[in-house]
Amino acid sequence: MDDETSVMEQPGIRIQTAVRNEPVAEAERQAITIRTANFFYGEKQVLFDIGMDIGENRVTALIGPSGCGKSTLLRCLNRMNDLIEGANLKGEVKVKGRDIYGPGVDVIEVRRRIGMVFQKSNPFPKSIYDNVVYGLRIAGQRDRRQLDEACEASLQRAALWDEVKDRLEESALSLSGGQQQRLCIARAIAVEPEILLMDEPSSALDPLAAVKIEELIYSLKDRYTIVIVTHNLQQAARVSDKTAFFWLGRLVEYGLTPQMFTNPKEKLTEDYITGRFG
Amino acid sequence: MTFLCALSVVVALIPLAFILFFVLHQGVPALNWAFFTEMPRPVGETGGGMANAIVGTGILIGLAALVAVPIGVTCGVYITEFKTSRLSPAVRFAADILNGVPSIVIGVFAYAIAVLPFRRFSALAGGVALGVMMIPIIVRTTEELLALVPSSLREGALALGATRARAVATVILPAALPGIVTGVLVALARVAGETAPLLFTAFNNRFFSTSLDQPIGSLTVQIFTYAISPYEDWHRQAWAGATVLIAAVLLFSLLARAVTRRLERMHHG
Q1: Is the pLDDT confidence value at B30 over 60?
Q2: Is residue A181 predicted with pLDDT exceeding 80?
């Protein structure tokens, strides 16, 4: 891991320019730290000794062939794997310094702080408005004005407001696929999470809708730490600051995205990103 | 093959056609406004109606719904949402067994728990009997429809910080609601036509009654009583009653479809 940190300190990378005037410790702030994470589905081990730091307000892409464990790792970060019987994580996952698998941790609280957007958009069969404020309502927010404001702000940030502002009471299922996915993003950010996990958020969308999602991801990183799983290497190259390449449940290489794509250190990474397998 | 299938359809439809034809043929001429608004007349006097029984059937199936819907839906939720529980296959099995229990036996059961302790036939006991009959239907309908709700919705709610119970109540059940409502209406239509469970629970009442702790009339029991009587006029009344019952069941089915369609439109834009 020390290796990775030194890479980040190298000058000339765009993420560095923004933080140059701040203390070095600020620049190194990590949102998530993963240490020796081993993950099992029953007897079967699917993640081996994963260790990585995920920087705050960065977009981190997890790439690799199907079944390499990248989605599993993502779902470890908000404990969605708890839902699967026999799922078991050994190791440490700290979010903002707190072990989310530690004793006495409230899973509900963890999921509230760490939003998630899924591969297939999953709006609830409710109105657009009710979808966006769902998380706030279950958190106990009843004040209509606050809900209205949060709804507008989230939809604005998800670049959907102009398209739906006159039809907030209509069913969310009347939206197009791309709009539905942006609605799911708005719904996730309405609860003001610190971290946003995205599991192939644009893989089910047409290219134009996918571009919109990418632009959105780019605009959201000022406020959120984003971890995105993607099969689309160009997408990883376009939106992410750092990229992690997984292979058979192991983290092969993790570094700054431009570097990973132009000058990978590992042969395996190079073979994958040049399309020799995958 | 096609011919055989068509033949089977015809054979299956013949009894329905005959039943409808005979009931309507005999019942419609016997129907009049008085049948719906008037009380049964004493033997020997012609005319009168079954207002008490019509209202009684309404009250009975209302009570049945009150008994069965909360229990049935909760059980259905339990089976689908808590699959890991060792109890849920048992609940499912129990529901299937209960579905196969003859209605007269359910009547005896309701007699034992809701009549004997109070030493009195009552509408409430009849409601319990019909409700018990409805429970397995509602359990299975709820279960099937909840299973159809995509798991992505469940995950979406949980990822936003919903507890499991909250996710069920706010996302999963509402998504399955149109189907569950249909299931409930269909179950109601089915038990509305039951006679056996009422014979020694709600009993019968020749007088107009809406009190739940008193015996109450019902269309089915009234039809039964009139049909086995030796009086020509009562036979006519029984046919009219059968017509009303069939019409009511049909109406319920149509209502079920209308409600479903409406809820679905609301949900799916």
Answers
A1: yes
A2: yes
Which B positions 72-91 lie with beta carbon below 8 A of chain A? 84
* Residue A94, SS3 per DSSP: strand
Report the complex ipTM.
0.84
| Angstrom distance (rounded) from CA B252 to CA B247 | 9
pLDDT band at A236 (very low <50, low <70, confident <90, very high): very high
Task: With CB atoms and an 8 Å threshold, state whether B267 touches A171.
Answer: yes
- Whether B220 contacts B56, CB under 8 Å: no
Distance between CA atoms of residues B226 and B210, nearest Å: 22
* Tens-place pLDDT, residues B66-83: 999 999 999 999 888 877
Facing B269 at nearest CB: one of A80, A137, A171: A171
**CA-CA distances (angstroms) from residue A105 to A30, A102, B34, B172?**
20, 6, 70, 26
Tokens of B18: 């005959």
State the amino acid at position A70 in one-letter form.
Answer: K
Using only C-alpha atoms, chain B has a radius of gyration, in whole angstroms, of: 21
SS3 call for B39: coil
Contact B155, A83 (CB under 8 A): yes
Q: What pTM does this model have?
A: 0.80
DSSP-assigned beta bridge partners for residue A60 = A227, A242
Residue A177 C-alpha from the chain's centroid: 20
